[in-house]
Amino acid sequence: MGKRYSTLDILRGVSVVAVVFLTLILLAILPSPGYRTSRLVLFAIVILFGWMGAAGAVFNRFSLLLIGAVGQFLLGFWNFTIGLVMLPTGAILLVTALLHREEANN
Q: pTM of the predicted model, to two decimals?
């Protein structure tokens, strides 16, 4: 028999995959026309928040998950184009954080 994974275990993996996807999309968009240093700084901050959330998912840290999710949501409303990728990533991180918090209280 194989190992049974909990919903939280699956969401942790989905969180990391979502952040990898976000990083790849942002790196693909970065050199598009209209490049400025401000775009590089914004993308670096977005990626940092994403990887903070992914680290929280991997290491079971609620605070890192929450910081990553809130950062993704706040910066996702700034730019519509990248918000299409950031907001779902933030939602996945937030759901993972809430489920982690619920399991920690049980």
A: 0.91
